[in-house]
Amino acid sequence: MQPGKVFLIGAGPGDPELMTLRAVRFLAAADVVVYDRLVSAEIMATIPGSVRQIPVGKSPGCHPVPQDSISRLLADLATAGLTVARLKGGDPLIFGRGSEEAAYLAARGIAVEFAPGITAAQGAASATGIPLTHRGLASGVRFVTGHRQAGEALDLDWTRLADPGTTLVVYMGRAHIRQIALRLMVEGLAGSTPVMAVANATTARETRLVSRLDRLVVDLRDWSAEGPVLFLIGRVVSLHSRDELIGPTVTQHLIPAANA
Question: Is residue 185 annotated as part of the catalytic site, yes or no?
């Protein structure tokens, strides 16, 4: 039997219009789609009902399909001669474990092709109008994940992350945001540094919370947003609403998405 292949596809942040043409072409060629929890319902709705769909999504504290099992599933499907679309939210090579799955498949002689996706930080930037870099405010940007396996310490380079001239983007950080905010301030990042939390960026369910580093944990208590949350931390957030965000009296602002 001729072996199949696996397409590792980035679905982007949620809006189907932000998928690449390559991703759309790969999905159209697939016999089966193996998809993550972070792939939006809008994107899943573009897949024909005749195509087999296998959910393997994880949520905090709940991993019904362990990573090793996902890799074996992909290999088994491809070995059976199927063309497999492995569909991940954002980009498969940015906190998506796509490289781990690709290495597993390549070691077994299974062909792998990638379709990059717009990562959540880029999607949130375009949806909110907040640039990730801006002359005079941020000359660089850093992506970090705030998620850790149960019991593991959140071990980041806090000194470098606390650079006021850099935009810090924290993926999957809500569970550890208290520690993140505290460590950044301990390393010298001002408590007045503006922060935006964005949930379900680029979808009709998008919601935003604007705060500042020393108020963020308190403001999050009253924010009922569900779904994946991305944190943008840095002076560029001041471009979202200059009058409200510059000064010591800033409190939270709940802002509905423009396309909600």
Answer: no
Catalytic site residue from 91, 172, 214, 219: 172
Please, what are the domains in the chain?
Answer: 5-115 (3.40.1010.10), 120-256 (3.30.950.10)
* pTM to 2 decimal places: 0.86
Among 140, 121, 120, 130, residue whose Cα is nearest residue 236: 130
More reliable by pLDDT, 2 or 222: 222
Q: Average model confidence (pLDDT) for the chain? A: 88
Burial string for 205-218 (b: 16+ CB within 10 Å, else e) reads: bbbbbbbbbbbbee
Q: Out of 36, 91, 163, 219, which one is annotated catalytic?
A: 36
Give 221's DSSP letter. Answer: H
Whether residue 15 lies in the annotated active site: no
At residue 221, what is the residue type? R
Task: Give me the pLDDT at residue 123, please.
Answer: 95
- Check if 88 is active-site: no
